[in-house]
C-alpha cells in the first residue's frame, strides 16, 4: 500500500506540472490583435458572412480585407468570403461616391481622408454593416475600428460610429541606431534589421504596420535623433525605401532623423552653415535623391544643438535658419521638418527648465509652413511627472508637435508596470490658460484656431525585437494608449486601458476591471517611490536605472540630481518662483500665479517650483519631511498591492503571461523598496532628521546604496 | 458585362492574395521539434495511449514526460495520459533496476549514464514501447530519440534502437557579450537577457534547453571567449545560477569563459601570474563561490595569449602553468578547464598556421587531468575549407577537444545557405595517419585508446534572439548537425540532413530529397565562390563580410589576405612545404608526404600548401588560372542552382518559410557573383592574364569593389 500511495502521489504531482500539451502559448506577439473567439459566434457569423468591395482593391483595401478576414476568423470561427456584390450579412467596404444605393452616410464628408464611419444598415432590404470612408486608408482604419468594436463587446447589430483623427501627424520616433542597438530601448534590438535590409523584408514589419494602423499611427521616424551621417547615404536610402514599401499600404510614411552635419561629415560640403548656398544645394539634391526612392517620404526629424549634437548655432544661425533651410529642400516634395525644442547647454547655467522656451519663444512665427517644432511634454526630460511644457500655448504662430516618451527611460524601463495613459492625459488636459476661456495642451496641438496648419504628436517608441514587442506585456498598453491619444488628444486613458485589456487579456468583466484598475494606479505608484511631491531627475547616472539623488560630480551641473532637488540641512526643492529661477514666468499669468504660492501649488508639483523647509506644514498636517517619507512608503505599498492583485488574477489569465507579469511585479516591488530606502537614507543624511515615527529603517547604509553599479545596463549606448 | 468582368477580376485578384486567415504561420521558432501530425495517427495513438513511469519523477523525468506528451499530441492528435502502471499501448520509461518484469534490456549496462535503449516489446502479454536507461538523463534523451524516430517515419511497432554518446562533453560556446551583443553573431542579440536576469527567467531558456537536449548537448559556455572580468563578480554569478537552474533538468551544465586577468582587473590581486600564491588562492576562492551558487558548474573556457587577450605568457609562464592553476581551483568541485589552442602572435611572423602546434605540442603531457585543450578544426580560423589541424593525433598525452564554428563567420553569415554537416564530417573523418592503421580525427576525439580521460567537442553557437534562433531557417540545420556529430563524431552528415529536413520542413519524400540535396551541395558552392582550390582568409577586414583579397595594409602581416594567397605576377598560393614555411612537417609523415607534392595534393587544398605558377597544369588539363576562374564560376552556378531548385519546392513548403528562404537565396546569388567578380578582377590585376575564353567580365572595376564599405556590419563588435 505504501508503494501504491507513493506511486499515486507521483501521478498527481506529474499531472499538476503538466501543461496542456498542445495549446499555443500566448507569448504576446499578437499584441491587442488577438481576435479571440466571441461567446456568441453564431450571431456574429450571420452578420459577417461576406466582405463586399466593389472597386479594384488597392494594397490598402486588400490589407483591410485581409485584416477583416483574420479578425472574423478568429472571433467568429469563420473567415468571410469576399464578394463584389452586397448580400445580406455583408460587411460592405465603400468609399464616398461608391456607397451602396440607399445608404445614408451623413457627415462622411467631414471625416476627411482618414476618417471612417461604421454603420449597421438596411440596404435594399438586406442587413449589412457598412464601413464607409473617403479614401482607402479610411477603409483600413474603419476595418480596424469594426474589429475593435466587435472585440470589446459592441456587436455589429446596432453599430453607429464615426471617427476621424484630430491630429494630422501621428508619429512614432524610434531611437534606433544603425547597429541595431536602441537608445533607451528595453525591448531587445531595433526591429529594423538594417544589416539584412533591403534584401530581407521580415514578416514582422508587416505586423508592425498592422499594429500601428490599428491605432491610426501614420508615420514613423526610423532612426535615433542622435543620428549618423550614413543614414543619408545611398545604401541606407535603399534600406529605408524597402521599409517604406512594406509600410505604405498601411498608411504609414517613413521619416528619418537627419544629422545636421551630414554633408560636412560625408566630405561633400566644406561647411554645414544653413545659409551657405552649397549646404542648401546639398540638401536639395539629397531630398531629390530620397524622393526618387521613396515618393511619399515624410521628412526629417532634427535634434540640433542639444546634448552635443551639431546644429545651426555652430554657425551663429538660429534654429529657424536651420529648420527653414531643410524645409525648403523638402517643400517641393511635400515633406516636412520636425525640429526638436529639447535643447540645453552647459554654458547657460541658469535653469535648464527654462532653456527651450528662451531659445524658441523668440522664433515664433519665423518657421516655414512645413516646419513643426516638436516639444517634449515637460521642460526637463520625460520624468515620472512634470508640469506641462511652458512652450505649449506660447508660440501661437508656430505649429507645435507633442513629444511623449513611450519607452520608460525614467519609469522603470520594461520592468515596472507603469501605464502611461494617465500621464499623457494629465498633460493633454492641462490648461495653459493662454486664452481667457482656457486653452488645454490638447487644444494647442489640435490648433483649431488656425485649421490649415500642420498638427501632430510624436511618441518615442518602446518597440523592439523582443517577442512581446515592448519588453513586457503591460508595456504594450503604452504603445496602444499613445496611438489612441494621437488619434484623439482629448481621449480618456481609462477607456483606452479598458479597450486594451479587453483585447489583450480577457473579455471577462471581472478580469478587465481588475487589470484596468491596476493600470490606472500604476504610474502614480512609480511617481511616489521614485520622485514624489514634484521631485525630479533623481536617477543614477548614464543608464538612468535606480536612485542616485546623491550624484553631484558630473561634468555639467544640470546633469546632477543635486542640481534638481537642492536638498540641504534646511530644506528641499527647486525654487522656480520669482525668488529663484523664475521659470514660472514662462507660463501664462493664471498658471504662474497659482504655482507661485506653495499653498496653491498642487502637492504633486510642490518641490518642482518651491524650495521649502523640512518642517513646512503640508495640507495633510504633516511636515514636509514626514510627508515625503509617507509618499515614498505609499509608492512601495502600491507596488506591493499591484503584485498582490495580480496574484488574484491568476485564474483569469493564461498561465504563461500570468507568470511573466508576476516575475516583473516581483522585481518591481524589490526595486520600489530600493528606490524608497536609498532616497530616504540619502535625504535623511542631508536633513539630519530622525525617521518619522513608524517609518521603516532603510535595509542598507547610504554608502551601500551609493556603491551599487550596473555595468552593461540595457538601453544605454 | 464589362463592369461585371472587372468586378470578377477584382474578386479573383483578392482571392489570390488572401492568405489563410487563421493558419498559425511557421516562423521557425519550433526548430526541428515541430511534431506535425503523422499520416497514420490512429496506429500511433494505439501505441502511445499512456506514458508509464513508476518512480518518483525527477525534474528530468518530468521533462521527458512533458516532451513525450507534447510530441505525441502533435503527431498523433492526442496527448497520452500518465500512469504508474503498465497497460497495453504504453510508452514505458524505465531505469535499470526498475525495468518491467520480463523485459530484456540487453546491453543497457554498456550505454553509460546518458545512453538509452528504445524497444518495442511484449511485457506480460501487453504491447509496449520501452525507453530504458541507466539514469534520468538517459530517459530524457530516449524520449527525444523516440520522438525523432516517430517523426522520421520509423514507427513504434518494430523499434529497436540503442544509442550512447561517444564523447563526454558536448558543448556550445556562446560568443555572447555582457551587453547582449554577440561576436560573430548573425541571429540578433544574445538569447541571455543579462540585464533582466536573474529576476526574469524567460520561457525561451526552457526551449533552448529542450532543443539542445534533443541532440544530447550537455554543456554551454554562456559568454564570449573574449571575456570580461565582470562575469565572475557576484551579481553575474547570480545571473548564471538562474540560467543553470533552468538548464539543469535538461542535463545541461553551464560553463563560463574566464578572463585571465580577472583578479588583477578587479583589484583583488596585485598580479595575474599563475604561480603567485595570491592568484591561485583567489581562483580557489572564486571557484568555491561559484560552486556555492551552482553546485554542478561545469568549469572555465579560456582564451589566453591570443589576439590581445591576457594570459600566463605575460608572466613568462606556459599555457600549462595557467591551465593547471585554474584546474586545481576547480578540481575539488569536479570542474574542468577547456584551454584554447587558438593562439597566434604578431611577433612570430613565420606562418600563423604553425603557431598553435609550435606552442602546444611541447606541452603534451604537462596538463592536469581535468584540463582539455580545445583545438579549432583547422590551423587558421574556421575557413570554408581547411585541412585538419596538425595537433589532432599529435598530443597523445593530452585530451583534445574539437572546436567547430556553427555560426558562419566565413561562410556567408546567416544569409548564405551553407550546410556545415559535410565540413564537420570531412574533418572528423580525416585520417591523421598518426597510427600505422590510421587514426581519424574522430578517433582522436573519442580517445578510445585511453578510456578514462575527458573527451569532448565544442561548437561556437549560431543561436540568438531572432525568431528563427539561428538567423535563418537553414542555419538551424548547422546547430542540429553539430549536436548530432558531438553525440557521434563518426556520424553521417547526409543522414543528419535528412533527419533535420524531415522534422523541420516536410515528411514528403520528394521534398526531403530535394532539400537534402541542396544542403549537401551548399557548402562546396560557398568554398568555390569564396576561396576555391585551398585559398583562404580572403575576406574583407574586421567584419569579414565579402571579398577583400587585395587587403595588405593591416597592423599585422597575418591579418592581411595577401599574406595568405601570396599572389603575384608569377603565381599564387602559400608554400607550406619544405621550400616554404614547412608547416607540413607538423603532420604525420604519411600526410606530409602526400601533401608535399602538388600532384598528390587534392585540388581542394592545393593553394593551402603550394605556391604555383599561373600556368601550372591542373589534373583537369586547364591551367591553374583557368581552373581558378572556373571554380569561381562553378560556385556562382551552384548558388544559382540552389535558388532555382528552391523555386521548384514552392508547392511543398509552407508559404512563409518558402518566402523567407527565397529572399536569402536571392541575396546569396547576388553575393556569390560579387565574390567571384571581385576576386577574379583582383587576381587578374595581379596575374595580368586575360580572362579565360568564355569567362564573364566582372560587373565593376576592381577599384569599385575595393571601395565598397559596410559600416555597422552585423556580428562585428
Automatic annotation (TrEMBL), chains A, B:
GO terms for biological process: xylan catabolic process. GO terms for cellular component: extracellular region. It catalyses: Hydrolysis of (1->2)-alpha-D-(4-O-methyl)glucuronosyl links in the main chain of hardwood xylans. Its EC number is 3.2.1.131. Residues 31-145 form the Alpha glucuronidase N-terminal domain. Residues 152-469 form the Glycosyl hydrolase family 67 catalytic domain. Keywords: Carbohydrate metabolism, Glycosidase, Hydrolase, Polysaccharide degradation, Signal, Xylan degradation. The active site is at residues 307, 381, 409. Residues 471-694 form the Glycosyl hydrolase family 67 C-terminal domain. It comes from the Bacteria. GO terms for molecular function: alpha-glucuronidase activity; xylan alpha-1,2-glucuronosidase activity. PANTHER family: ALPHA-GLUCURONIDASE A. This is Xylan alpha-1,2-glucuronidase.
Amino acid at each position: 500500500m505504501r508503494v501504491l500511495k507513493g506511486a499515486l502521489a507521483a501521478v498527481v504531482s506529474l499531472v499538476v506540472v503538466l501543461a496542456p500539451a498542445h495549446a499555443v502559448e500566448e507569448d504576446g506577439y499578437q499584441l491587442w490583435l488577438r481576435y479571440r473567439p466571441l461567446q456568441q459566434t453564431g450571431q456574429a457569423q450571420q452578420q459577417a458572412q461576406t466582405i463586399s468591395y466593389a472597386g479594384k482593391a488597392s494594397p490598402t483595401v486588400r490589407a483591410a480585407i485581409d485584416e477583416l478576414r483574420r479578425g472574423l476568423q478568429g472571433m467568429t470561427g469563420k473567415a468571410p468570403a469576399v464578394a463584389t456584390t452586397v448580400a445580406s450579412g455583408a460587411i460592405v467596404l465603400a468609399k464616398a461616391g461608391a456607397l451602396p444605393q440607399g445608404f445614408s452616410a451623413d457627415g462622411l464628408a467631414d471625416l476627411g481622408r482618414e476618417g471612417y464611419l461604421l454603420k449597421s444598415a438596411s440596404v435594399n432590404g438586406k442587413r449589412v454593416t457598412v464601413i464607409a470612408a473617403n479614401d482607402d486608408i479610411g477603409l483600413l482604419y474603419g476595418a480596424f475600428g469594426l474589429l475593435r468594436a466587435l472585440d470589446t463587446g459592441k456587436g455589429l447589430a446596432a453599430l453607429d460610429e464615426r471617427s476621424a483623427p484630430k491630429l494630422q501627424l501621428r508619429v512614432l520616433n524610434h531611437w534606433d541606431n544603425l547597429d541595431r542597438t536602441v537608445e533607451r530601448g528595453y525591448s531587445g534590438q531595433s526591429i529594423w534589421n538594417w544589416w539584412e535590409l533591403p534584401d530581407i523584408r521580415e514578416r514582422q514589419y508587416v505586423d508592425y504596420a498592422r499594429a500601428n494602423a490599428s491605432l491610426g499611427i501614420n508615420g514613423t521616424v526610423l532612426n535615433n535623433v542622435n543620428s549618423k551621417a550614413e543614414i543619408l547615404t545611398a545604401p541606407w536610402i535603399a534600406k529605408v525605401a524597402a521599409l517604406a514599401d512594406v509600410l505604405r499600404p498601411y498608411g504609414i510614411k517613413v521619416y528619418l532623423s537627419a544629422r545636421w552635419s551630414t554633408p560636412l561629415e560625408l566630405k561633400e560640403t566644406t561647411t554645414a552653415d544653413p545659409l551657405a548656398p552649397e549646404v542648401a544645394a546639398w540638401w536639395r539634391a539629397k531630398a531629390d535623391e530620397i524622393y526618387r526612392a521613396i515618393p511619399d517620404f515624410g521628412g526629417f526629424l532634427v535634434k540640433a544643438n542639444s546634448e552635443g549634437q551639431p546644429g545651426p548655432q555652430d554657425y551663429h544661425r538660429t534654429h529657424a535658419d536651420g529648420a527653414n533651410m531643410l524645409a525648403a529642400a523638402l517643400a517641393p516634395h511635400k515633406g516636412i521638418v520636425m525640429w526638436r525644442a529639447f535643447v540645453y547647454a552647459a554654458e547657460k547655467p541658469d535653469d535648464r527648465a527654462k532653456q527651450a522656451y528662451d531659445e524658441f519663444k523668440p522664433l515664433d512665427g519665423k518657421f516655414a509652413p512645413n516646419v513643426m517644432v516638436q516639444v517634449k511634454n515637460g521642460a526637463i526630460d520625460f520624468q515620472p511627472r512634470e508640469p506641462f511644457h511652458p512652450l505649449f500655448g506660447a508660440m501661437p504662430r508656430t505649429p507645435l508637435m507633442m513629444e511623449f516618451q513611450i519607452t520608460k527611460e525614467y519609469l522603470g524601463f520594461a520592468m515596472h508596470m507603469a501605464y502611461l495613459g494617465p500621464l499623457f492625459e494629465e498633460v493633454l488636459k492641462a490648461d495653459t490658460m493662454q486664452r481667457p476661456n482656457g486653452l488645454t495642451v490638447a487644444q494647442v496641438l489640435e490648433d483649431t484656431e488656425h485649421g490649415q496648419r500642420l498638427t501632430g504628436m510624436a511618441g518615442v517608441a518602446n518597440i523592439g525585437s523582443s517577442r512581446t514587442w515592448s519588453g513586457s506585456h503591460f508595456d504594450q498598453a503604452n504603445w496602444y494608449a499613445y496611438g489612441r491619444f494621437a488619434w484623439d488628444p482629448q481621449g480618456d486613458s481609462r477607456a483606452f486601458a479598458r479597450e486594451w485589456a479587453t483585447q489583450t487579456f480577457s473579455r471577462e468583466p471581472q478580469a478587465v476591471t481588475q487589470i484596468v484598475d491596476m493600470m490606472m494606479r500604476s504610474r502614480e505608484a512609480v511617481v511616489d517611490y521614485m520622485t514624489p511631491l514634484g521631485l525630479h531627475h533623481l536617477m543614477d547616472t548614464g543608464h538612468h536605472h535606480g536612485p542616485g539623488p546623491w550624484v553631484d560630480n558630473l561634468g555639467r551641473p544640470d546633469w546632477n540630481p543635486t542640481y534638481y532637488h537642492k536638498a540641504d540641512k534646511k530644506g528641499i526643492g527647486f525654487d522656480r518662483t520669482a525668488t529663484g529661477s523664475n521659470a514660472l514666468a514662462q507660463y501664462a499669468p493664471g498658471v504662474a500665479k497659482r504655482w507661485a504660492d506653495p499653498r496653491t501649488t498642487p502637492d504633486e508639483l510642490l518641490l518642482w517650483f518651491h524650495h521649502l523647509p523640512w518642517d513646512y506644514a503640508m495640507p495633510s498636517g504633516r511636515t514636509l519631511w514626514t510627508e515625503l517619507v509617507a509618499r515614498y512608503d505609499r509608492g512601495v505599498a502600491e507596488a506591493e498591492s499591484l503584485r498582490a492583485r495580480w496574484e488574484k488574477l491568476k485564474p483569469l489569465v493564461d498561465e504563461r503571461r500570468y507568470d511573466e507579469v508576476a516575475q516583473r511585479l516581483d522585481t518591481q516591488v524589490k526595486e520600489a523598496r530600493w528606490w524608497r530606502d536609498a532616497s530616504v537614507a540619502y535625504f535623511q543624511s542631508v536633513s539630519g532628521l530622525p525617521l518619522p515615527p513608524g517609518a521603516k529603517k532603510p535595509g542598507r547604509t547610504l554608502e551601500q546604496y551609493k556603491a551599487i553599479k550596473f555595468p552593461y545596463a540595457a538601453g544605454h549606448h
